[in-house]
Write a structure and sequence with these properties.
3-stranded antiparallel β-sheet; binds s-citryldethia Coenzyme A
Length: 432
């Protein structure tokens, strides 16, 4: 191995040295391959939160956190949000290239034909209280899909993997909308094959049997953009969860259900719901400085929800697109003086001028504006993370499919630094 592309480490306890290969990717930091370190050195590496760890190689999404760049299969997120559709972007994420017109039409038709769920799956909703959090229902119902689709559970069969992928992508909006209908005691609305992905979801959410429902094209277009912006994001916590679950050989429905559970956390996809709760708690612009100070207090667990990111140390490009989209949607829906949006803009302005946020490089992330748009669309706050899961499902599927054909695929099984008691003998209770 040429010395140039290696990292040489010396264990000063023994004087032993090891050269580890350094591998460069298309873009981003190169990696040092530490697979041999335990065998050669008897050492584990420790990296809580995996801040310096690449868990896999991937061709799907690239993020440059310093420059605020996000690429899906090499295409900038701003161009896809502006010129593509969620279905076309889903094709790109899953297959690696943009489709030509006939490929796009076939893919669109394939998804449309799989949007209905097994009628008995809808019985699961009756087991949930009406006030159950919709994410609790999503975890349960998506996991339960594996009880229905035995014809596509052989993860080693590429046709089964493809069929499961299409089923998940097609059915997730139907399942998501049913969570909302269940919570308000309205009948489920079946998919309408004459509508596109976003419009179909809106109809399943807001239509009622007794009258015609007209989709607002501005809202549908905005929703399609929101789905594109949330579709994938490299090896984030929920995607890593899907990969880890999938690495055991679990079926894709179970792996995606695990990803939904991980996304729910307020530090991750649950942040959009937390942002709205925080804005309501702040209430007025006059209260903003108090909360900005609270967010900096090391003794206070309060954080400014929708701000900060593990990777973006500059702006989150998705937040910038969503901020523009929010203005457009609010105008179109005659909410131009939406107090929440005004408060969010003022909170962003003050935070970005505050030296703590400047020093910690904390900028608005994807969750800061998405809730404001979704709220204006009439989507209730507790459904915001469901929207995120609906969009991210295609990213999880694409990453799962990539992992399943990866020559390096092994079951994920991290080790630890043990600091518990040394071995000791059991003592009878009367001698303790
Ligand atoms: C998503 O990974 C992804 O790609 C996720 C995601 C995706 O598309 O999959 O982009 C989606 O999850 C976006 C993030 C949504 N979460 C939030 O908005 C919640 C608020 N943000 C924080 O919880 C935090 O910023 C995280 C969890 C997002 C990132 O945390 P890190 O990477 O572990 O950073 P950190 O906590 O180490 O923060 C560095 C410093 C800390 O201070 P010190 O300990 O160094 O003194 O910045 C501070 C933090 O206390 N800090 C904040 C803050 N975020 C970080 N202080 C106040 N408010 C905040 N929001």
């Amino acid at each position: 191995m040429s010395n140039k592309n290696t990292l040489t480490l010396t264990d000063n306890r023994t004087g032993k040295t090891i050269s580890l290969p350094i591998q460069a990717g298309t873009a981003g930091p190169p990696v040092v391959d530490i697979r041999g370190i335990y065998g050669d050195f008897g050492l584990f590496t420790l990296d809580p939160g995996f801040k310096s760890t690449a868990s896999c190689t991937s061709n799907i999404t690239f993020i440059d956190g310093e420059k605020g760049v996000l690429l899906y299969r090499g295409y900038p997120i701003e161009q896809l949000a502006d010129q593509s559709s969620f279905v076309e972007t889903s094709y790109l994420l899953m297959k690696g290239e943009l489709p030509n017109q006939s490929q796009l039409d076939d893919f669109d038709q394939l998804i449309t034909r799989h949007t209905m769920v097994h009628e008995q799956l809808l019985n699961f909703y009756q087991g949930f209280r009406r006030d159950a959090h919709p994410m609790a229902i999503m975890v349960g119902v998506v996991g339960a899909l594996s009880a229905f689709y035995h014809d596509s559970l052989d993860i080693h069969d590429p046709r089964h993997r493809e069929l499961s992928a299409i089923r998940l992508l097609a059915k997730i909006p139907t399942i998501a909308a049913a969570c909302y209908k269940h919570s308000i005691g309205q009948p489920f609305i079946y998919p309408d094959n004459n509508l596109d992905y976003a419009a179909n979801f809106l109809k399943m959410m807001f239509a009622v049997p007794g009258q015609n429902y007209q989709v607002n094209p501005v809202v549908a277009r905005a929703l399609d953009k929101i789905l594109i912006l949330h579709a994938d994001h490299e090896q984030n916590a929920s995607t890593s969860t899907v990969r880890l679950a999938g690495s055991t050989g679990a079926n894709p429905f179970a792996a995606i259900s695990a990803g939904i559970g991980a996304l729910w956390g307020p530090s991750h996809g649950g942040a959009n719901e937390a942002v709205l709760k925080m804005l309501y708690e702040i209430g007025t612009v006059e209260n903003v400085p108090k909360f900005i100070k609270k967010a900096q207090d090391p003794n206070d667990s309060f954080r400014l929800m929708g701000f900060g990111h593990r990777v973006y140390r500059n702006h989150d490009p998705r937040a910038q697109v969503l901020k523009k989209e929010a203005k457009k949607v609010l105008e179109a829906l005659d909410h131009h003086d939406d107090p929440l949006f005004k408060l969010a803009l003022e909170l962003e302005r003050i935070a970005l001028e505050d030296e703590y946020f400047i020093e910690k490089k904390l900028y608005p992330n994807v969750d800061f504006y998405s809730g404001i748009i979704e709220s204006a669309m009439g989507i209730p706050t507790n459904m915001f993370t469901v929207m995120f899961a609906m969009a991210r499902c295609v990213g999880w599927i694409a990453q799962w499919k990539e992992m399943m054909v990866d020559k390096d695929l092994v079951i994920g099984r991290p080790r630890q630094l043990y600091q518990g008691p040394a071995q000791r003998n059991y003592k009878a209770v009367n001698s303790r």
